[in-house]
Design goal:
7 strands; five-stranded antiparallel sheet; about 10% strand; 11 helices; alpha+beta; Ribonucleotide Reductase Protein R1, domain 1
Length: about 350
Amino acid sequence: MKNLKLIFQQTLFCNKKSKSHPFSQHSLPVTRHSLHQRLRDGFALPIVLWTIALLTVLVMMALGAVNRWVDEAATAEKTFRARQLALSGLAIAMNQTVPPNDPILTKGDPKSDQGESYTVEITNDAGLINPNVFLKGAEHTFFFQALFNSWNVAEADQENAIDGLYDWQSPTDLRSAHGAKRGEYEAIGLEGYPPNTPFLDAREMAMVIGFAPVMKAKPNWRKYFSTYNPGKISLRAAPPEILEDVLGMTPEQAEAWIKLSAGPDGIIGTDDDLQFSSLDEAAKLMGLNSEQQLKLNRWFTIDGHVRRIDSMGNCNGTIHHIIVIMRDVRSNTILSWQEE
């Protein structure tokens, strides 16, 4: 019995010792599982962080796209509404009985970026210079020299500009002494120019070789010209800059004449405008000298009607322009329609 009891005690001791040994066969599986778990946990954290970052980027991109769509839709809506407002003003101004500066031509505050408005300006292109008309005559050089002199354009630059303008609309391939034809335009990359036909729009003058010094000397040159005036300059419709630079009047003389010819209401183109039957009568009222009167008789006529309508619609700061030019007072013939 003693022997059996001793063996049993020794067995229990060995079992306890083996369980507590760190490298025993029973503890090895537990250690491997713990190591694998820790490795898996270490790899999972970066993956989760990268996934969160990727989802954040995707969400931000989606929000940005949605915001752009919303902004584009809002801009398109304001542009559409601004055009409607411009059309509303245009419809009123196309009525030939509506005079310039009539209060009905303005609605709202066109200078404000809040709310809706339209404003319409009515002028008469018959008071402007048609380059095609003045390039046809034998005196075209004298006319443009007088104009360019008032703009302080150098003499050599005047010759280049005048001959360049003439060659643009001349139907032949013959080049003027200081002008440019097909070869010169092709040399600067303008194939097919000049068209050898009259100017369709005064903006084409900017393409003429030799005209650049004129544009530099007179940055607002464009406001002097219109290809829609069928003849000479209308004295009734001529703006002060035309009277000053073409006739040689002083700013004070030009202002006084326009005030006198506008009549009591101060608006050109109404029934109370000053009436005169001839240019000679007008020259006396204007106080012109003999040289100025000669220019008046050569380059001006009394009347002319080419209605220019510039209608501007404004919707919360979004602007839309419609420019319409009409010639015939009775038939409302539309010569040009531009939108910008």
